[in-house]
Each structure stands twice: as structure tokens, then as C-alpha cells.
Amino acid sequence: MITIGDILSPKHILLGLEAGTHAQAIAKVAELLESDSHVVDWERLETGLLAGSSCMSGDSGSGLCIAHVRTDAVNGMIMAAGRSAEGIPTADGTRVRLVFVIGVPVALASDYLRIIGALARIFRTGNGEAELLAAQSADAFLQTLRTLEMEM
User: For residue 26, which of 12, 56, 90, 131 sits 20 to 30 Å off, Cα-Cα?
Assistant: First the structure.
């Protein structure tokens, strides 16, 4: 079973995300993956990620955006994350503070769905959102995700 810690690395975490729209935020976070060895076709991956985002509101009033795509533009599952201190406005008035992008080969559908579900549960339950927003470094952010995923 693939975990968040297996596919996310500190070099793919941007804690100082700044963007005017959620599409710009997704693009900036996705750029962290452009040179990843699993990316076969960057343009197709980026297009798919920008088309496949979903956002939800959290208990604090901030939001989570998960942009994801199943595609042959990658030959292994990849993931990047971004955190915005101020939040990025969305069309429905929420402010997204956490942005995740995930690219996955078509063959890994079950692992992909489990990762997306884990992120949603982490965001919705307990203090997960607050702990991610408080992380002081990319390493701490990743360790928080690992711990929260293991607790579920």
C-alpha cells in the first residue's frame, strides 16, 4: 500500500505559496514536479492537473484544494503540496490554504483514491488542518502528514 510519505518529499512542498487564484496556486505547486523523474509529458500533466481540482471548506473556514489526474503523462505516482498563509480566493468565496497536486498512472487507481481519501479525512478530522498550517518546515509538514495518516 502506497502512503503519502512514499510519494511526497520535502522538495515538493512549498510553504510560502502565493497566488491570486486557485488555478495559479495549482500551477505553482505543480511546477515543483516538472523535473520529477516520473514525469513523461509535463504539458499534458499540467493541463490535466488544472482541469482536475476540487476544493472543500474546513472547520476553520479555510479550504483545501486537491488537483489530481490519472494519466499516462507519469510513469509513477507523484505528489506536491503548497500552503498559503493568507489563503487563495476561490469562486465560491472560500480561501484555500492547502493545495495538493497528484499525478498517477492509470494503473494505480486504487492507491490514488486511497491517497485522496486520506487527505480529505486528515483535513476534516481533529486538528489535522491546524497542525499542517503550523508546521515550521517542509520536513515538519511531511512528518505531520505521515503521523496523521498513520492515526487514521
Answer: 131
Tell me which residue range forms the domain holding 83: 4-151
Beta strands 13-14 and 78-89: pairing type?
parallel
Q: Which residues pair with 79 in a beta bridge?
A: 102
Q: What is the pLDDT of residues 71-83, one digit of tens each?
A: 999 999 999 999 9
The CATH number for 39's domain is 3.40.930.10
Which residue is it, cell 472547520? 59
Count CB neighbours of 80 within 10 A: 27
HSE, CB side, 13 Å, CA atoms: give it for residue 38. 18
In eight-state DSSP terms, residue 74 is B
**Beta pairing, strands 62-70 & 95-104:** parallel
